[in-house]
Design goal:
three-stranded antiparallel beta sheet; 9 helices; 8 strands; 48% helix; alpha/beta
């Protein structure tokens, strides 16, 4: 890896806890954070807003290249601006999540976003959250994590999130959507959702968020990537 900034990749299916865990680990380390899923969601949202069909590969690639997006670190949660508008809530809807999964299956879109993702690699280090961070984007990362959890547990988590946000949701429908998205992500021809050969797989089904964070910090220390190592 020479003088390149260190990277920890955290991949896995939706609802496994990647976003929360990645943010907490990045805060503990004082490193930069890449939410690669947000870039695909932003591309999908921009396409929906500008009337670009979700099967128009060339059009979607142009949207990805021209994406006017700014990530702001504010109050821990952060803000995401698309064309100057705060869209942090919009990109987390089920509609946009489903659209993002479809968009992410297109090789043209993935190629368009690859270089943009790699520019997040800056000192002192990067925690990269996604589905192909360890297998494609940062293949030389010294530590690769694959977070997973049962589809049932992930549906329960999403259901709780929506209920807490005041959104009525059907648990059975959420489970079916998650299973369909998993199948699409795992079966796509380009960068399918699979653990990297050298990834550490961690099932979060029965673990609390603090327990997962501590396990990851221990792995980081083992690799000499923390100040405590």
């Amino acid at each position: 890896m020479s003088d390149r900034a260190a990277v920890v990749t955290i991949d896995g299916p939706g609802g496994a806890g990647k976003g929360t865990i990645s943010r907490l680990v990045a805060e503990r380390l004082g490193w930069h954070l890449l939410d690669s899923g947000a870039l695909y969601r932003l591309t999908a949202l921009a396409a929906l807003r500008h009337g670009v069909a979700l099967d128009d590969a060339a059009g979607l690639a142009r949207v990805a290249v021209e994406l006017d997006v700014v990530f702001l670190a504010e109050g821990g949660e952060g803000r995401v601006l698309l064309e100057g508008q705060d869209v942090g809530g919009d990109i987390r809807t089920e509609q946009v999540g489903d659209a993002a999964s479809r968009v992410a299956a297109l090789p043209e879109v993935r190629t368009a976003l690859l270089q943009r993702q790699q520019t997040f690699r800056q000192p002192p280090g990067l925690v990269a959250d996604g589905r192909d961070m360890g297998t494609v984007v940062f293949q030389d990362a010294p530590l690769k994590i694959f977070l997973t959890a049962s589809a049932e547990e992930r549906a329960q988590r999403r259901h709780r999130q929506l209920r807490e946000a005041g959104v009525d949701a059907n648990l059975s429908s959420l489970l079916k959507e998650i299973q369909a998205r998993d199948a699409r992500d795992m079966q796509r021809s380009v960068a399918p959702l699979v653990p990297a050969d050298d990834a550490v797989t961690l099932d979060t089904t029965r673990l609390t968020i603090p327990e997962v964070v501590e396990r990851l910090m221990a792995l980081l220390a083992r690799e000499g990537l923390t100040s405590d190592a």
